[in-house]
Amino acid sequence: MFNYTIMKNTIFVIALLVILASCKEKTEQQPAEHALTEDEIHAKAIQIQKNIITLDTHCDINVANFTDSINYTQNLETQITLPKMKEGGLDVAWLVVYTGQDSLNEEGYAKAYENAVSKFEAIRKLCEDIAPAEVELALNSEDVRAIHAKGKKVIMIGIENGYPIGKEVANVKKFYDMGGRYMSLAHQGHSQLSDSNTGEKDSVWLHNGLSELGKQVIKEMNRYGMMIDISHPSKEAIKQMIALSEAPVIASHSSARALSNHNRNLDDEQLQWVKDNGGVVQAVAFAPYVNIEKDSLFDLEVDKVLQAEAKKHDFKILEREAIRSISEDERDTYYKEYRTIRNAVTPKLDSISKVKDPVNVADFVDHIDYLVEKLGIDQVGISSDFDGGGGIYGWNDASETLNVTKELVRRGYSQNEIEKLWSGNLLRVMDEVQAIAKQIQLKEEQATTTE
User: What angle do helix axes 292-312 and 328-344 make, rounded to 10 degrees?
Assistant: First the structure.
């Protein structure tokens, strides 16, 4: 006989669960009728940043800014400095050992290795000689939390382009011992290790993914606990990296291709690979990667002002492709002079931004929303690409970091979710990569013992 009492109780329990779930969703996403005021958003963002660790996975450097007389303790024109980190509440900056792509021969490898070492040494000098009271180098998540607890800023090291490895797989451990904790295997142009995403333009590939040497480097990175960075390599190379890796990967500075059709962004298929792999995608605040159409239209207006100012200084503004083709020293000199030109016309550019529509923080957080939808809240992070072309209106240098947190608060992300986005997810992946490295090394030791 059918029991109507049980049926009524069951319906009541289900209805109660639906109501509770609805209440939870409204609490986390903040319904419009209870939306915070701008003052409340500002205050809440400040409090959240006091309670969490904010971490940016990609900031370029110039060794000329790591001397006794010119360094990051000063408020330089660069987008990342210690004063700007303090002002904006940015706690951790991954400084990048970047090497531009050059010839695939012994001379090219030797020069690239020298360049990489000079940047490792510059970062070490900042932490150990120039500003040891203000900043320390971290090698793992425990270091990050311990240094942050002291009230200091945290520096970590990423490697952009595996080209300086040359043909020596042993250089992976050398770079790891120098502090490198992630590395991409290519940049603008195919390296000896991997094809680059730039091959999309002409469909010319060197390895059809990874070279045999590149595959060895992936295994070596797993062995020592260096995160594999899939920003810049080709789609096929990324697919092979994820298939080969025993550990989660990261995209240190890439956004969603579905929102901005740029070949540096990750499409939905690639995002699914990262999701299945357990890795993390660090959305990047690089204007064309955020919204290529919007950025192109705004750039037309900005270019008129910049060209007029550049003419006064007898300075030639280059296209992005032209910048990538010059040497690194020339590139550093170019960006230094370009920033001077841009800073001179900042008031005019700000005026343009009020009547036109530049790529801004809201556009950037659209990518975070999309990535969270595709990957989940545990597999998304944040990066800027400061001093490497990055920066958008509202987050154009480290001093404006709070604006990103404010936009996340405005959209209803909780403190726990914001903490994951700003640092928790990336640190979780680094922990897993380093734990897997210990397992690999232990297995190798046991195998050697039993032989």
Answer: 80
pLDDT digits 0-9 by tens, 91-128: 999 999 999 999 999 999 999 999 999 999 999 999 99
Closest CA to 367 of 291, 274, 273, 277: 291
CB 193 within 8 A of CB 165: yes
Distances 3 to 8, 9, 14, 310, 427 between C-alpha atoms, Å: 9, 10, 17, 84, 53
**Do 240 and 210 touch, CB atoms closer than 8 A?**
yes
Q: What is the pLDDT of residues 43-85, one digit of tens each?
A: 999 999 999 999 999 999 999 999 999 999 999 999 999 999 9
In angstroms, rounded to a whole number, what is the distance separating the alpha carbons of residues 275 and 176? 26
User: Per-residue DSSP letters for 136-154?
Assistant: EE-SSHHHHHHHHHTT-EE
Cβ atoms of 46 and 36 closer than 8 Å: no
Phi, psi at residue 239, to the nearest 5°? -60, -45
In angstroms, the CA 267 to CA 241 distance is 16
The owner of tokens 């531009």 is 100
Tens of pLDDT, residues 118-173: 999 999 999 999 999 999 999 999 999 999 999 999 999 999 999 999 999 999 99
| Domains of the chain in sequence order | 38-291+359-450 (3.20.20.140), 293-357 (no CATH)
Checking phi first, is residue 29 left (phi over 0); if not, alpha (psi -120 to 50) or beta?
A: alpha
Question: Cβ distance 163 to 192 under 8 Å?
Answer: yes
In residues, how long is the chain?
A: 451
